[in-house]
Q: What sequence folds into this?
């Protein structure tokens, strides 16, 4: 089955669950957000194909054939190599996400994702085209350095996208299950803290798949400062409804904000 078809099927399931039993009542009209973010996703796909006509999986195949990268210098069982590759890719994603909060040009691009003042499965689709392009180029470099195989890249990409949809879904899972899952993977509640408009919350929980990195690098936050019932998501200064429109989302990185300086003041303490 086509990968996009699988992801679309999962998207519909999660969207259906949050539609019938949402944790929070949306502030804005769902139709506008969905049209904008789905439109942005389609636009990002076009931009990526235009500037990077070779997919990361095809790129990994070429690296494998040329025997480039660290893994190609060792005779490692494919199963072990895949596990190590997924872990490495997730760690690199964590580090890049962290850099996106402390390096101003990256933050301005990444801010488009955070500026959503609601939080549901479509939030996962809301990324600026330039951020998608830069992130993909970064992953290209990681694949070439380590010589990560195409099958490992495919597995990581599928898991990353599925978990990305899951952790942005407006649902509340049972507390005991959430607490248990947090030992291994990111959960919707854990990631929702990261989307809080409180600076301390925003500077935490950077993981995408595995929660280990936040524990190891001491960026884990168990719950938002205001508590889950009073949490406000989004970015201060970008709460106007105009930021839900595609043209405004595309030019948003060219606007300054005070959030970046506040984040880095806290980080430097």
A:
């Amino acid at each position: 089955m086509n990968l996009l078809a699988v992801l679309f099927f999962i998207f519909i399931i999660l969207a259906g669950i949050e539609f019938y039993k949402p944790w929070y009542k949306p502030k804005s009209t769902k139709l506008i957000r969905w049209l904008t973010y789905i439109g942005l996703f389609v636009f990002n796909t076009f931009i990526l194909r235009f500037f990077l006509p070779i997919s990361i999986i095809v790129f990994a195949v070429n690296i494998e054939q040329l025997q480039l990268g660290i893994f190609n210098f060792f005779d490692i069982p494919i199963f072990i190599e895949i596990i190590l590759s997924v872990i490495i890719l997730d760690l690199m994603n964590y580090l890049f996400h962290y850099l996106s909060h402390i390096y101003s040009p990256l933050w301005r691009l990444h801010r488009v994702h955070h500026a959503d003042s609601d939080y549901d499965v479509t939030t996962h689709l809301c990324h600026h085209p330039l951020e998608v392009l830069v992130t993909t180029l970064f992953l290209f470099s990681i694949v070439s350095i380590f010589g990560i195989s195409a099958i490992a890249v495919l597995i990581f990409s599928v898991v990353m996208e599925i978990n990305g949809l899951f952790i942005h879904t407006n649902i509340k899972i049972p507390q005991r299950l959430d607490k248990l899952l947090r030992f291994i993977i990111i959960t919707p509640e854990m990631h929702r803290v990261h989307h809080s408009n409180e600076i301390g919350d925003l500077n935490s929980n950077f993981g995408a798949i595995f929660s280990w990195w936040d524990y190891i690098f001491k960026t884990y936050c168990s719950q938002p400062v205001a508590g889950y019932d009073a949490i406000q998501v989004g970015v201060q200064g970008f709460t106007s409804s105009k930021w839900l429109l595609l043209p405004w989302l595309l030019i948003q990185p060219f606007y300054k904000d005070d959030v970046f300086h506040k984040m880095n003041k806290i980080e430097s303490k």
Observations:
- Residues 30-268 form one domain.
- The radius of gyration is 18 Å.
- Residues 78-102 form the longest helix (25 residues).
